[in-house]
Amino acid sequence: MIAATSTTPAARNPATERALADTLLSPRFYTTDFAAMDRLDVSAVREEWDRLIDEFRNDTNLRHFKRTEAFRAAVEAMPDALREEFLDFLISSITAEFSGCLLYADIKKNTSNPDIRMLMGYMSRDEARHANFINESLADFGLAIDLSILKSAKKYTHFSPKFIFYATYLSEKIGYARYITIFRQIERHPDRQFHPIFGWFKEWCNDEFRHGEAFALLMRGHPQLLKGPNRLLIRFFILAVFATMYVRDHSRPNFYAALGLDPTDYDFTVFRITSSIMRQVFPLTLDIDHPKFRSGLERLRRIAEAKAAVRKRGGLLAPVKLAALSAAAAAGFLRLYALPARSNAVPNRVRLTPAW
Prior knowledge:
Blueprint: H1 14-20, E1 29-31, H2 34-38, H3 46-58, H4 70-76, H5 80-109, H6 114-140, H7 147-153, E2 156-158, H8 161-188, H9 201-220, H10 230-249, H11 253-259, H12 263-278, E3 284-286, H13 291-313, H14 318-337, E4 341-343
Parallel strand pairs: 1-2
Antiparallel strand pairs: 3-4
Helix pairs in contact: 1-5, 3-9, 5-6, 5-11, 6-9, 8-9, 8-10, 8-12, 10-12, 10-13, 13-14
């Protein structure tokens, strides 16, 4: 498991406090119905499942996450505005990684199904490794997160197993798409690597890809999760993940400028990669080329910026303004949800290779 930084609650640093905050855009911690997870049966996908477990067992990234002296040196050369947004990126990333680590570890602890226990143990191992690696970079800034506090104090959201499958599959696959897109940019423009952590992203994102493959197999092994009214839920989760990413990324202009990326172009590249991947299992994808899709995301971004400005100003009317903006955001999300989706005929074989 993760080696937590040793501090007391009274000594929480700003990074720990930010990781604890529950906002619409911050990663969440989850728990689920362990008895239902215990009843999962992978017989229908056994051949592909066993090959995947062999990949986890081989642990190709066992020795990948080793730091160099360049990590500490990068801190000194970072301008203040970039430093702030990079820290926000690291804090959001470690919260997401640690969330997966805890969820997978809890499922393993509370189930007896050998297939599920083995899978969750391997995935928790990977996520712990990722979280520790990020925390070491935060420590270079004097802001290592106390993960023991995060585990005990962060609010947990209960999701049914199928919600866990939809949300976590998307999280792992979009995580792959985000990391590989940044890594490819650094390959093309090495001068844009303002911190060495980006050089670790290729092998790192292959862990994310493999985790997504596991959830794809679980869903394909239980095809009722991909039919009927569940199609509406899948559509909701895809849109929620895409919209959250778009709004969050546009709050980090200095971060993406330093990488030589435009946030909108970057996000749509990630959307295209993720949409291509999710055809392995989901019966639909969003029409991200619809003219109202981009404008709808822009509307949500402007509303989020307006809400941040209201919170900063405060005042007696702030609650009323925030309520009105929240209603506008909900209406904007519903308009996006109403846009036509693209049906997809899933292939007979589930597994994919990370070739982007």
